[in-house]
Amino acid sequence: MECNICGKKDVLVRAEIEGAILEVCQGCARYGKILSRPPELKRSSPVPQRRVIEPEDVEAVSADAGEKIRKKREKLGLTQEQLARKVAEKESIVQKIETGAMAIPIVMARKFEKQLSLHLVEEAGPAMVSMSKTPGSIMTIGDLIKKKEG
Ligand SMILES: [Zn+2]
């Protein structure tokens, strides 16, 4: 493209100069009002954006947590009241948890874990990571052969 004013071969912009819309070079464009800038040159090889997938912190209190707590408490010779005091909860809460009448929130389960040296919270991290892999990202030997033949 050549500048409509000076004839210089350059990247042109559309500019309004003295009422006329012209395709001009950057140098001439300053004599008028630039209406549009040329689109930026696209990179020939865009870098593919790599999305880092953080494994979700999936945690769940094990189904038999209440039973585990009761067994451990009895082993330690603690009453429900004493245990309740240790974890700063109401005795009725401990009762409900031990009988399975109440689901244990993870935060609370952590307290029981600490006080009774138990493992109550289970993590389901690795399974989630393998599931979130992008399909097609893995090349099989079959794909490689196809490429060679193709
Ligand atoms: Zn020009």
Characterization of the model:
The chain is an alpha+beta fold. The protein has 2 domains: 1-38, no CATH class; 59-125, 434 Repressor (Amino-terminal Domain). 39% of the residues lie in helices and 15% in strands. It has helices at 26-29, 65-76, 80-86, 91-99, 106-116, 125-131, 141-149, and strands at residues 12-17, 20-25, 33-36, 59-61, 121-123. The protein has a 3-stranded antiparallel β-sheet with strand order 2-1-3. A two-stranded antiparallel ribbon has the order 4-5. Strand 1 and strand 2 form a beta hairpin. Helix 2 crosses helix 4 (91-99) and helix 3 packs across helix 4. It is elongated and about 100 Å long. Bound molecules: zinc ion (ZN). The site of zinc ion has 8 residues, from strand 2 and helix 1. Zinc ion (ZN) is lined by residues 3, 5-6, 8, 24-25, 27-28.
In short:
With 150 residues, the protein is α+β, with helices and mostly antiparallel strands. The protein has helices spanning 26-29, 65-76, 80-86, 91-99, 106-116, 125-131, 141-149, and strands spanning 12-17, 20-25, 33-36, 59-61, 121-123.
